[in-house]
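Archive record:
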Amino acid sequence: IAHEAVGSLLFTTLQSSNGALWRFKPAGGQKPVLLREEFTGVPEVAVAPNDDIIVSDAGEGVIMRCSPGIPAGGSCTTIASGLVKPRFLSVTAIGDIIFTEFLKSQISRISALENKISVFASSSNGF
């Protein structure tokens, strides 16, 4: 679950055999809106300081940046690929994306300035 600056909540589910990303606006009793459902497995979600939606697709091994306007007119762009089941997403105040990969004893970072992946922290014994 992630919280957008406008007060909406973003959450993910497994919809049929695909992962799905939803937006829920608590005010006014509106129903959740399906934003995207082409994920392989249940995605993880975080919100960047500029309101971009950051989503990991563990099955595809990618992290995507989606414009806040999805599904109406927005789009998603892959910013990291070749990952091993990326999960536990977090975004720093300056927009760096922090995440882990399945069975790797490290925390990685995608720099907001360079859009480059680097190891943020690691341990030979695991975490």
Remarks:
- The two ends are 23 Å apart (CA to CA).
